[in-house]
Amino acid sequence: MYNGDLAYAQGGILVAGLIYVLISFVINRIGTENINKVLPPQVIGPMIIVIGLNLLPTAVNMASGNYLIAALTLGTCLLIQKFTRGFVKQLSILIAVIVGYTASLALNQVDTGIIANAALFSVPNMTLPKFSLPAILTIAPIVLAVFMEHLGDIKTNGQVVGKDFLKDPGLNRTLLGDGLATMFASLVGGPANTTYGENTAVLAITKNYDPSLLRLAAVYAIVLSFVGKLGGVLQSIPVFVMGGISVVLFSMIALVGVKTIRTNEVKFNLKNIIVMASILILGLFSSQIQSLTGIMPGIKITETIMVSGISFAAIVGIVLNTVFDIIGNKSK
Known about the structure:
Blueprint: H1 6-30, H2 32-37, H3 41-63, H4 67-83, H5 86-90, H6 92-106, H7 113-117, H8 133-139, H9 142-161, H10 166-188, H11 197-206, H12 211-224, H13 228-236, H14 239-263, H15 270-284, H16 286-293, E1 298-300, E2 306-308, H17 309-331
Antiparallel strand pairs: 1-2
């Protein structure tokens, strides 16, 4: 970080959160109907698929430390999902992680020293932000990249739950919440907040969509953050255990994308095929394109920040679909 002081990163994060808040006001002015026009199923479906498939290699890499235990964790989750119902099925992820962790303990694959060295109770370190223009210019432009991820994840969550979250509570409110949470986190020494595809998969697996329970879970998380031993236990969970469970989570995201295309009966005409193929190719094979051409597909924001991968694929898909619609309307 700037001058080796993380507090300057907090300053950049606070500004990034403020930009999110300002974008939420702009989105509120534009209106949800106009947002939905540029985000039809032929754009959203491939975006969701790209999010899931881009995360899968990370899960496999995490599992590489011990494929056997990772497979045990993965298999446990799938079996519970297949053969149980109700509350037990909702706990499939937690039970699978416990099984994987227990197996890791039995095979001496857990660093128990982390737990032993952790204090019973501890107060999380909190620091105030510092501000520097170079640090702000390094961090704040990232908002332009993660905005598209936020858009894709919110739309994906709506597909999983069966509601249009761009309309209710509204993209402006989800962005506002993200921005305010990021600003608050920066004031107490925390990282930036953003949407996570993993959470979408958890919704799909547990079928638990009640916001009040999510708020209660947040309160529990805050309270439990003061229990040092619990933090030690969580830190001691082997990466390969989380890799096994992540394979389930990321695969579920990709399947949601396929379901989005199917349930909305997207027509496989030339226009839609071009739009969907562009998103999939740019979102999944950016590194391969760079290897072949020497050029990374994307939009350069600063010397160190570039919109590429998922975000760039989403922008290209939206632009192509909009242009085709304009051309189609003019030809009628």
